[in-house]
Each structure stands twice: as structure tokens, then as C-alpha cells.
Amino acid sequence: MNKNAVISIIVFSALLALVFSLGKLLAEREYHQALLTQAYTELPSQQVEIAIHHTSDFDSTITVVDTNNLPFNLKALGTFLVTAYCPCQQCCGDYALNRPIVNNRPIVYTASYAIAHEGVTIATDPSLIPHDTTVYIEGIGFRIAQDTGSAVKGKMIDIYYENHDEAKAHGVQELRVYTLTP
Hints:
Blueprint: H1 3-41, H2 49-53, E1 61-65, E2 71-85, H3 89-92, E3 101-102, E4 105-106, E5 121-123, E6 134-137, E7 141-147, E8 156-160, H4 164-170, E9 173-181
Parallel strand pairs: 2-8, 5-7
Antiparallel strand pairs: 1-2, 2-9, 3-4, 5-8, 6-7, 6-9
């Protein structure tokens, strides 16, 4: 083989590997989005809050029934410090720079490769609440652990909002947190 043929084969192999890697990355992103959509549509009704407020046994697993009479279990994780964040640079630092914009809104990719959505996404310490875990935050509702944060350590949760003023208005709260269990 001559030198040009060898170079062509090497370049072709490198391009093929790059295309394969990009295809795999896009497939993983689509998979994570499908998981998010499935998890979001399968979240129990927000109206279970009333049932939880009437339970006094905080240190156990409780069974509640949503508005469709579907039972599910919630395991108490304890009281957490709950804060909020948005996609701005003040909240996210350098991660806010150069985000893709769709319909005049930044696309926020989380640490779990999902796209952040208000009403769904929270940042947690994954050693305590792993990614893709569905939790119930008393007074807030169901959310999915999809992100992490440099300041989110231990019993702390950061709730994602689209708007900085809403995130700021959320403030800092101490709230009871439960995990959805089988």
C-alpha cells in the first residue's frame, strides 16, 4: 500500500469512530429524554399532600392513595434544606455560558444528561438521593433528581425554576422529603 492509501484509511477510521460516538451520544440523550417523559407522566397526583400532612409517623414508610385510587409507598428521608436555582449565570456560574437557545429559552442539560424542566428537575447530593430518583417534597410536590450542584451536599435539595425571580422568591426552606418506593 502506498502512503496516501494508509492515510486515507486512518482518516476514514477516525471519522467513522467520530460518527459512531456522536450517534451513541445522541441515542443516550434521546433515551434519557424518554425516561424523563415516562417518569413525568407516571408521577402520582400532586394531591397526595393532604394524606401526608395527616400522618404522624415520619420515620417509616407510609402508603398513600392518589386521586386515581392507586396506592404507592413513600419512605421518609428526613428534613432537608430546600433552595432554588434557574439557568442564569448568577445561579449556575460558567455553566450558564454558551447554552443552546430554543424558542428564546436556554436548554439546560443536567448532570444526568436530561434537559431540566421546571416542575420536574431537582439537584441533589447523588450519594444521598441518586439521579433518576423520584421524591416528594412536602408542600412542593413530586420531583426527579436529575442534577447536582457544587453547593448541594448532604440533606440539601435545589429546585429548578425557569425564572430567576421565581427561584429567588422560593428562598430557603426546611421541608420534609420522601422517596417514592415500590
